[in-house]
Amino acid sequence: MVNKSDEELIVLVRRQNTAALKELYRRYERRIFNFILKYCGRRQLSQDLLQRTFERVWFGAHLFAADKGSFKGWVFTIALNLTRNEMSRKYYRYHHQDLSEVDEQEVSFPSANIHTPETAVIQQERKALIARALGLLKPHLREIIILKHYQQLKFREIAEILDVPEGTLKARFQKAIADLKVLLNAEDF
Amino acid sequence: MSHIPQHQLIDFHYGELNAAESREVREHLANCEACRADLAALETIGKTLYTLEDSSPPANGFEQLMNRIPTSEMISAPQIGRLQVAPYFLLLIAIIFSASIIGIFHQNIAALSYFEWFHQFAVVDKIGSLGFSAILLSSIGVLLTAAIAPVLILEMRQRRNIQRL
Ligand SMILES: [Zn+2]
Predict the structure, then answer these.
(1) In this prediction, does ipTM exceed 0.85?
(2) Does B150 touch chain A (CB under 8 A)?
(3) Which pLDDT tens digit goes with each residue over B57-98?
(4) Which residues contact B97 (CB under 8 A, 6 or more apart)?
(5) Is B138 domain-assigned?
């Protein structure tokens, strides 16, 4: 299984091969999890959405068309759509990424405790501020920052996932960077 | 001298330019302080963003996933639903259709010349033209079903998967 390409594995998943699903899960679990986590800032929700993404990979394996793109693009598209749907719900719109209100267990980084050395505390605060700035970005800009900067995807790959022309994508990325500069300066960086 | 457009600087920063384009940008940067400052700003924001590292996904994630996904035995178990019923509905229509054919045409079958040949077997006399027609048509039905069974099974499985999505 380890030697097989993603596209070979998804063909096996189509035939209900769980070993192939396990290998795809191993390859993408960390990337998809962190993509969702940076998008929504909630650990518990990210775990759930990661599972739902792979549930769709399993039941929708026959819907994957190799001639229309890579498995990587497809699995990110599924994760993105699930996360967008979830975040468009009323609750998240009004409580969006307000980390101060979120339970400690829920946030994407461990909270600082009194025994942590001072530098670590500062580091945690910096992380909290960045997570907050990301959360304040408009969703259509945030998803590009995460896919480009954190997931290191090519603009061509992101264009495929978001179904947006590459030129539009680059313009949005510039806007996102400009907004982040403002947000991070406002957060005293 | 015109400056490097922001989108090209971004492509340069993320290594998306080809060798010739990269060289051009590097040459410009060597002589232009303004563009160097733009690139430095991009690098700074990049480093700042990286402060937020990746987290580890939950342990036993795959096991949790398998608990949500039924195994193949469960998938092949019969389920009642609008889509699942469709093939059985087709089967019912086929049975009614065959019965009607037998009802209407069994006398004609009895009149066919080859039917005479079957009279050498005592059983044909016992079951009569009605029984003979039934056996004949159901044999054809079984053969046809056996021939298209793989297609039907695949179809039913896919319908079930789509419905679960
Ligand atoms: Zn310049």
Answers:
(1) no
(2) no
(3) 989 999 999 998 876 544 444 444 455 566 677 788 888 888
(4) none
(5) yes
Residue A95 burial class via C-beta count within 10 angstroms: exposed 0-12, middle 13-18, buried 19 and up: exposed
Of B39, B47, B49, B73, which to mutate for an interface test with A (greatest number of A Cβ within 10 Å)? Answer: B49
Instruction: Among A56, A170, A184, select the one facing B48 at the smallest CB separation.
Output: A184
In a domain, B105, yes or no: yes
Q: B72–A50: do the CB atoms touch at under 8 Å? A: no
The CATH number of whichever domain residue A91 belongs to comes to 1.10.10.10
Instruction: Kindly report the nearest CA distance between residue B50 and chain A, in angstroms.
Output: 8
pTM beyond 0.90: the answer is: no
The boundaries of the domain holding residue B21 are 6-51
Q: Tell me if A15 is assigned to some domain.
A: yes
Tell whether B87 and B125 lie within a shared domain: yes
